[in-house]
Amino acid sequence: MVADEWQRWVVENLLRGVEPHELVTGLVEGGAPRGLAERTVFEIVRSPGFVTARDRDHWAKRLAQVARLLSTVGKPSPLERRPAPDAFELFGRYWATSTPAVFTDIVSRWRTQWTPQSLRERFGGAKIEACVGREGDPRPDVNWRAHRRQLTLAEYVDRMLAVDQGNDLYLIANNRNTARGELRALWDDVVLPSGWFDAQRLPHGSALWLGPAGTVTPLHHDTSNILFCQVHGRKRVVLAPPWTEALLRKAEGVYSRMDVQQVLDDDDIVSFDLTLRPGESLFIPAGWWHDVRALDASVSLAINAFVRPNSFGWYTPGGVR
For the whole model, what pTM was predicted? Predict the structure, then answer.
């Protein structure tokens, strides 16, 4: 048979619907003897592997049509900004329908509002983990383990406040700081809506985000539903639905290689571009793409310890090969 790359060319074109005799002609024009070209094409057509590939290709195209239908006729309604609903409405109206929303009155219930300075005063001696040296890495979020550093919260806040803007240092979800014993007293401040969360799981089911203006978490999706509480400073968030084909085509793990500006510039992509203000909380359903950029020195708390089952770790379209 002909070289592997030519065999792949035959398979790809057969799946596109090109007739076998046209592929024979193409191989001959590429330098293959006619007999070898005919044998190659027709052995591929009759092979069990190609039959399986064709069936999988048909299934993928059907799923792509479903995604296209959702993106065409299932366009999300304008993003709501409203007071937090009760648990029945949250789970029925937003959770069950994969609908993001901004809730305006959750953080205002907290007993103490956090700023970088107040966190330093109260917990300055606490040992934390931070990600440092991100600026020189084109993929610092993917390579977060290489940037892990142990330091005190006071040392971190001092470094953070010495920077006007930048993406070099950040406390992120993977640093797992809300579960640290020295920071457990933070949870004495937090007052959350009744019936939404499992209080026992909050320290391990949450993430403290703390950094200067200019920190960036690029387009990605989570595998759980998240309540993202903006406590101090502002963040710009761009959201796009899970069924956005352009993002899926460029998915890699939970990230998309598509630039957020391309999303905003593409009229065929449904997206929400919002500024999350201090005191607001954004409900981000599992699978929704989001890009998050700090406009100010910022403190955020992301919570996924809901009372409902909330683990969709099987949802990794960017890992499918």
Answer: 0.85
